[in-house]
């Protein structure tokens, strides 16, 4: 990670400082690189990085499969209970078909109240966000709207 990484980090930091609402997705490189970038930006903004999969799975571990979708939605809503900016890492749980969640819509919903920065574990193809491979139960293909995308090359 060279100077491009620093430029992306600084641009991302400025974007988050100057915007109060909206969804920002980080893509490209490795998951480790994206997580590292989230951590650096969180330090600059004096915010915590939320491991979304850990938060959701800890809420759901003792529930039956039929109870999980409702409780997952509630756990996600609780994350945004105050209007602080959100930095979300490890969002893969959102793609679990048992939870009956539309990942990008869920993130957009959170971003109506505050700025949300998320580590996108998939890829982008034009105006489409893609996660997984076609035919896999967790595969998702969702149209992008007004999201801001930062790509690490």
Write structural notes for this entry.
40% of the residues lie in helices and 23% in strands. The chain has helices at residues 3-18, 31-45, 52-60, 68-79, 103-111; strands spanning 22-28, 49-51, 86-89, 115-119, 123-125, 128-131, 140-143, 148-152. The strands form 2 sheets. A 5-stranded parallel β-sheet has the order 2-3-4-1-8. A hairpin with an 8-residue loop joins strand 6 and strand 7. Helix 1 (3-18) packs across helix 2 and helix 3 crosses helix 4 (68-79). The protein is globular and about 45 Å long.
Question: Descriptors for this entry?
Answer:
153 residues; alpha/beta; three-stranded antiparallel β-sheet; 8 strands
Q: What is the overall number of helices?
A: 5
Domain module count? 1
Report the sheet with the most strands, covering strand number, pairing sense and barrel closure: 5 strands, parallel
CATH topology: Rossmann fold
Side by side, the strands of the main sheet go 2-3-4-1-8
H/E topology pattern: HEHEHHEHEEEEE
Class derived from helix and strand content: alpha/beta
Mean pLDDT, to the nearest integer, reads 91
Total count of strands: 8
